[in-house]
Amino acid sequence: MKKNVDPEETKRIITRLKTVRGHIAGVERMMEEEKKCEEIFLQLVAIRSAVHKVSVIVAQRYANTCMSDAIEEGEDLQVVLNRAIATLMKLNQ
């Protein structure tokens, strides 16, 4: 484990991911029960939103901890920044 990672934050992220997993299981049940398309679509939108929120939290964690760990471990600042920019850009794709 990296030294700058907050274990409580990790727990919160895992809890959010478990919630997403529960929502996905709910959509599976809705499909099996042949619920209305609108109901299923709304749940899928909620799942996408929840995954995006987790992505933002992990991106913040990346910016706050992973980058500083890499720099403290002697990695070149420009290389770390370029890698961070490329990684964070993927969040918006």
From TrEMBL:
Q: Which residues form the signal peptide?
A: none
Tell me which Gene Ontology terms the entry assigns under biological process. Answer: negative regulation of DNA-templated transcription
Which GO terms of the molecular function aspect are on file?
Answer: DNA binding; metal ion binding
* InterPro entries listed in its UniProt record: Metal_Tscrpt_repr, Metal_Tscrpt_repr_sf
PANTHER family attached here? TRANSCRIPTIONAL REPRESSOR FRMR-RELATED
This chain belongs to which protein, by name? Answer: DNA-binding transcriptional regulator, FrmR family
